[in-house]
């Protein structure tokens, strides 16, 4: 299952890269055409905005899978393993509830805006709200799998804190690779 999720995340990362490339071409091309030739790409702003929304939600899915979201773990680090497990379970249940609320709201907005067309492209505005639906389904799946791993005891003690304290610490860990903790366990 983990291998399949990894492959899906790699596909999502490829989609994000493609969306970013299209955004760069549209925005840069529009700037050049406006200042150089007094014309422009009509759909540039609208499509770029939509791609940015989709990139944000898809990037959040990848970050959730890789436990790359920032957080404060000062208190949780001091707890015994049972306390860490309880905090992780409560956190995941709360996140699942929030993802459920996001799913309901996104579906409702997609339905409301199904017949509303964008001013330039004429496409349905439901495309914007579909990003929330896709995010909430994928995030809910990842969160449920993490919670299942916790409840079945298939999660290591070092993985009980699933946040990163700072971006610098994440970058340093990526540069230096895994490190040994106080018990000599490789992280």
UniProtKB/TrEMBL annotation:
The chain crosses the membrane at residues 12-35, 47-65, 86-103, 123-148. GO terms for molecular function: transmembrane transporter activity. GO terms for cellular component: plasma membrane. It is found in: Cell inner membrane. It comes from Variovorax gossypii. Keywords: Cell inner membrane, Cell membrane, Membrane, Transmembrane, Transmembrane helix, Transport. This is TRAP transporter small permease protein. Pfam families: DctQ (PF04290). The keyword Isomerase does not apply. Its main location: membrane. It is a multi-pass membrane protein. Residues 23-152 form the Tripartite ATP-independent periplasmic transporters DctQ component domain. It comes from the Bacteria. Belongs to the TRAP transporter small permease family. GO terms for biological process: C4-dicarboxylate transport. The complex comprises the extracytoplasmic solute receptor protein and the two transmembrane proteins. Part of the tripartite ATP-independent periplasmic (TRAP) transport system.
